[in-house]
Amino acid sequence: MNNDQITLENSMLNHSIKVLLIEDNLAEARLFKEFLKEDKSQQYSLVNTRQLEESLQEINLKCQNYDVILLDLNLPDSQGISSLNRLIEEFPSIPIVILTNLKDEQLAIESVRQGAQDYLVKKEINPHLLIRSLRYAIERKQVLERLRQVNQVLESRVETQTSELIKAEETNYLKSEFFSMLSHDIRNPLNTIQLASQLLQRRDERITMEQKKAHLQIIRSAIKNMSSLLDELSFIGKTDSAKLKCHRTQVNLENLCRQLVEENQLAAGEKNVEIELTTSGNFSQTVWDKNLLRHILGNLLTNAIKYSLPNTKVLFELIRQDRIGIFRLTDRGIGISPTDQQYLFQPFYRGENVGAIPGSGLGMAIVKKCVELYAGEIVVDSQVGVMTTFTVALPITEV
Question: Is residue 15 classed as helix, strand or coil in its secondary structure?
Answer without folding.
Answer: coil
